[in-house]
Amino acid sequence: MDIVIITTIIASLFLVIGAAEPLAARLRLPFSVILAVVGTLIGVGAIFFLQTELTDALNPVAEAILGLPIRSNVFLYVFLPTLLFQATLGMNLRRMLDDWVPILLLAVVAVVVATLSVGYALSYVSGLPLAACLLIGSIVSTTDPSAVVSIFRSISAPQRLARIIEGESLLNDAAAIALFGLFMGFVMLGVPDPQLGGAVARFPMLIAGGAFTGWVLARLAVRVMALFNQHELAQLSISVALPYLAYIGAEQSVGASGVIAVVAAGLTLNLTAPGRLQPQTWTNMRELWDVLAHWAGALIFILAALLIPRLLGGIHLTDVALIGVVVLAAIAARAVILFGLLPLLTLMRASPAVERPYRVAILWGGLRGAVTLALALAVTESFRVPDETKRLVGILATGFALFTLIAQGTTLRWIIGRLGLDRLSPIDEALSRQVVAVALQTVREEVSRTTENYELSRDIVRSEAKHFGSRLDNAVKNAEASANILDRDRITLGLISLAGHERDTILARVHERTISARMAEQVLFLADRLLEGARAQGRSGYQRAARRSVAYGASFRLSVMMNNRLGMSGFLARMTADRFEFLLSQQLILRDLGKFIDGRIRRIHGRRVADLLQEMLNRRIDLVETALDGLRLQYPGYAEELERRFIRRTALRLEEREYTAMRDDGLIGAEVFTTLMQDLAARRAAEEKRPKLDIALRRTDLVRRLPLFADLDAATLKRLGRALRTTYVDAGETVTRKNRPAKTVYFIESGAVEVEVGGQTRRLGRGEMFGQMALLANKATRAEVKAIAPSTLLALDEMPFRRLLKRSKAIQAAVRDIAVKRGIDPETLLPAPNKKKAS
């Protein structure tokens, strides 16, 4: 076919795509449904004009449309990697971890159950071999999220519902296509009754090989991008190449799943690139992929729809009955997972609860689309598949996809409305009334000042003020109608607003580059968790999320163990540095939230609620500062380096703002501005690199470096090293309790502790000791000591410590200082001086 004709048709399809989006919005239908209908009508029209004798003028156009070189490889190798890769870049992976059980259940288990359900149902009612029936089951088990998510976004459906469906649709493409490859092989080899055990045994290898390929290529791509940090277009170009190289490399070189490779590459880039690239580059990369995915998704839908008349050619009444079997089996399989297995896992506390309305929406939202049609096309193109099998695969897959798009897609909005998922909760409705009233009052004040400044006509001002005043009066009445909201609900509303403002503040700091790109995802994840915790469980949910933000997780404890037991310090150093930067960023953000409470929250919810929220904010600040103190005591020099880095980054932001203002005011030209910004960019790139944290201080180093042991000879140091016992304590764990016999003195090798004596607390860090006073006084301990960070302590029993005390003047001085501060006679604690015999 002439390249000019192909180009003209593709350009015309882009015009159709451009017109389809506003048409879908006007008809309140999913965009993909409109594309499928338009594509089908174009295909039907082309066939009609070729077969009719009414006119021959449009025959060349019809022949060109039907003769487009549309093959399944175009969908699988060109469009599918684009859609999958963009979906992974746009996902909030940390938020999806909260619902990883239902997502994996729907993405993997539901795919297998649907494949088996459809396969065995078709095998029972039709004459097709079991392998062909299972092949059809794998084709129709993959869902398409675009139509569903577009509806959710247009009606402000719960974010959690959209997140579950997006996660499911991303991962079930991989699972379904992997199963498709397995059963396609059985069909082409002519195996009528495949051994499912062998197929299942091969499945993990496909997954693991694809995941490893995608991970390796993404890590390599990120390293190369980091080298080109001043060349954004080069970085964007590398990101465009990555999914295609991952897909082809896994499929052709490794023999694994290309879909899994693309998903793994996208997830790896999502997790690692924000910390290695400039924030604006990462934003531009995601925007670029949004545009590419929009075009790819629209083209794959409309081009696949052009094939529908061809795939449905020769359909019989019995085929319609078989389509009904596929529909019933697929929906039944999905219902078993959603209303059987998922509630069971919730009862077993293996999965977070998914509300019944959510499950109904997920059940009816399992739309099939372009991927299903592309896989069916791949079967019809294979010369090694029997003709009858190809015919039935094309008809059943296409018929089922059309049913889901037309029957389910057009009614999904109505179903969501019936479930009440498109309506605000009573609390949110009350909040919206309060917000409107406060906002209009602020607007009235601003408008009043504006009209005075510009000396506008009094009659016009009076007329508009009257109109605006009536609107304000109605808003105040609506707000007063909901004035009987319980304080508990007002606190929940205030916390939701506070978490939302915290998220906006974080985004502003990231844009200003005060917070590094490395930390952006973590602090945004915390804000999202606070927001959802407040929505779901009010004050308790918010406080639980706040405590989790400063707690040491399992991965951190594992890295501590690897450092202490195996001497592998790299993981602990990186995680400790991340925690340092995260806590500093969080401290900066929390300091800015008090003004929001005093302003907006107090005006909307009153003084009592504002004071309570301020108290909760102060507790969060205390938690963060306690965690920071633990790190500062442990690594004082590193905390200073990070704080200096923050000051330098802030200065660079202010410097950039001044240069921009001078350019806008015409004080400097474009050439001078460009030169200044290039110099600024070079200095900013240097500040992006975080200082390295050195945590490799081992026991022998500690013994040598501690000032307390500075006056000991080598032999004594050696004996001391043998006498010290290593003790590991987690954050929050009690080391010593009150009123217990004192038998041990502790030296802090790493970490920090908090000592509470007589209602007063003090914090000790690396290199300091505790427990010596009670031991020397032969009394029970008066202090309670708790670790405020994962700590490694060196314990020394009573007798070795008393011998050490006799030899070390530095330790004697330390004991004497503490005794004086506590009002104790130090001579009662220290050993009597040795007296030399007279000669």
Automatic annotation (TrEMBL):
SUPFAM superfamilies in UniProt: cAMP-binding domain-like
Molecular-function GO terms, alphabetical: potassium:proton antiporter activity; sodium:proton antiporter activity
Highest taxon, organism lineage: Bacteria
Regions that span the bilayer: 6-24, 31-50, 70-89, 101-122, 128-149, 170-191, 203-221, 256-277, 289-308, 320-348, 360-380, 392-416
Keyword terms, alphabetized: Cell membrane, Ion transport, Membrane, Sodium, Sodium transport, Transmembrane, Transmembrane helix, Transport
Subcellular location field: Cell membrane
UniProt GO BP: regulation of intracellular pH; sodium ion import across plasma membrane
UniProt membrane topology term: Multi-pass membrane protein
InterPro entries: Cation/H_exchanger_CPA1, Cation/H_exchanger_TM, cNMP-bd_dom, cNMP-bd_dom_sf, RmlC-like_jellyroll
Annotated GO CC locations: plasma membrane
Residues in Cyclic nucleotide-binding domain copies: 708-805
PROSITE patterns attached to this UniProt entry: CNMP_BINDING_3 (PS50042)
Classification via Pfam families: cNMP_binding, Na_H_Exchanger
Record's protein name: Putative membrane protein
